[in-house]
Amino acid sequence: MSVSSVSLGRRCAAVLLTVAAAVLLVAAPAQAALPSGSGWSTAWRYYAANSFEFSATLPGVAVSGYGTDVGGTRAVIATVTDTAKDNRCARVELWGVGPGFLDGTTICVGGVSTTIGNLSTTFDGALYVNVYRMFPFTEDHDKYTSVYVPSSKDDAGLRTLNTGAKWSYTSGTAFSYEVRRSSVIVSGYGQHTGNERSAWSTVQKTTSSLFGCSSGKTTGNVSGTVSGTTCAANGFATFHHAGLDGYITVQACYTPLVGSKRCLATSVSEPS
After folding, report:
1. Euclidean distance between CA atoms 205 and 3, whole angstroms
2. Which of 52, 67, 108, 224 could be 220's S-S partner, Cβ–Cβ 3.0 to 4.6 Å?
3. What are the angstrom distances between the C-alpha of 254 and each of 45, 55, 113, 152?
């Protein structure tokens, strides 16, 4: 065989290997990873029978506030801060189910704070605190989360000390959460690998009563759900799911022997 024939054969083999590698890459694309969750959090809780507080953060954005709640009739006030000197703006909106938009502001100067809301405008429905990281001079945003405080108008049990919910990212890929109301706490932690999210949870029955059951559940936005229940006095149960997706809803419920089942939930945002 001539030298030129050998060279030609080697070139053909190299071309075939290149084509095969390209086919494999097309057939098995790399899994896209979720963005970092560092700097993401929300929280709210009742710190008195007629008062609650709330907060939320995104990279470059922070809001904290409080509200009054007298028999389900509420009023809220909050402080918004642009926490980073970058090319983004901080925007927060307060919405009440019933009256709709209550107040809002956009800040584009790092380190500057302003107050929104007031204690003279009242409403009876749920509260939404919508938090955005905005592009300047536009109505577009690249990051968003929300605090949801359900109405207590028909659920007086919400107005109990330390009833509330919270979650936060402890690193770029790991987060923790807690939802609590009378007689039940659901707490746990999770992480994302690629675009898949996992959650490990514990439900606690926080009463020594021999009657009634506490339950918890985590659910993915599109697919995946798992739950646990305990009826023992001061009992607990654990549950885990490794195939959750999107935002994760964490729910805590208590079912007394006599009376209605009462639940509370929060959604752990998926970073963007």
Report:
1. 81
2. 224
3. 18, 26, 40, 16
